[in-house]
Design goal:
It is built from 6 helices and 8 strands; from the N terminus they run H-H-H-E-E-E-H-E-E-E-E-E-H-H. By secondary structure, the chain is of the alpha+beta class. The longest helix is centred in the first third of the chain and has 17 residues.
Length: about 140
Amino acid sequence: MNNITLPLIRAAALAVALAILAVPGHAASSKDKATREMEQNGRIYVGTLQFDIKAGSTAKAVSEVTGHPDCVLPDGTWLVYKDFYVDHSTAHGTLVVSFKDGLVTAMRLVTPNVAVALVAHPESAFGREVIASNR
């Protein structure tokens, strides 16, 4: 008669768990939506910041919440700070806030590569696409 011992069951359970983690794509499927979108597109759109900062808010209201921007692009877009995190997500990056007539038109979280591209080439088509969409 074969006896199945508790250590054998634990070892088998550990082997199954490790095998599941090793399956390609499994780790990616466990990432939240915002993190997956950041990895795929280099940016996500931010609807509202704390204290109800959203499209239509004034630049003064944004600066009261975020502080002064790290960088201001020629069109007035702010790159606010580098370690902005999304609530309930592992997504993080640089907060980019676009304005028209002193009011927020869009807010995005971008990866470091996108932030560098915006600073280096704010006039490029890539930069305009990232900062001008009203999505």
